[in-house]
Amino acid sequence: MAGCMLRLLLASLVAAALVSCQATSGLDRGDALLAEGKHAEALALWQEALAAQPRDTALLIRVATAQVRLGRLDDAKATMRQAVAIEPDSPKVRQNLALVYLWRKEHDKALAAFEEVLKLQDSYPETNYYIGLIHEMRGDEEAAVRCYVKDVNNGPSLAWERLDRYKEKQRALGLAPRGPSRGGVWVFCGVCLAVAAAAFGLRLMFFGLRSED
Description:
With 213 residues, this protein is mostly helical. The chain has a domain at 23-96: Alpha Horseshoe (Serine Threonine Protein Phosphatase 5, Tetratricopeptide repeat). Helices cover 80% and strands 0% of the residues. Helix 3 packs antiparallel against helix 4 and helix 4 runs antiparallel to helix 5. The longest helix is centred in the N-terminal third of the chain and has 34 residues, at 2-35. The chain is elongated, with a radius of gyration of 31 Å.
């Protein structure tokens, strides 16, 4: 009896491993299809996998990504809301819901969703960058820059490009801090030379007095 139970358990473990391997290969194949621009094929593959694993939030994120690429923004929104209901404490899941809102140009909802991400993890990658984009689209550049700076302080960031553009705009408007003028540089150099000459003269005088002793 014990041997029979052991064989059944082993068989179930093998079956589960096979399903896991198939799911992993399916994910990889779907990723490849999406990268090739075959969005509908990737979506079909992931939806088939989702039928067997309806609570897999990684799959739901992929499904929503394909739906966005196909312009099916209502479906993507429903998919990501389903994912949040399954895993509400995942910053990755909430960030992807926020991105769907951003695609839909629902900026208030997107901003609220990104703020929820920061409540879960205050340094989550790119969250402040996307919040900055929303502020920039609304014309609040100062708030946008503050968010971009926060994001670059967290590590590698897309916000560097936005900050560089902002600096170029400030320079074009004559608002960016400027370095010293060319005349100022020449005056500074002249002062340095005068000090050096005075120091050299004192040194000569000192050694000259010693030689006379």
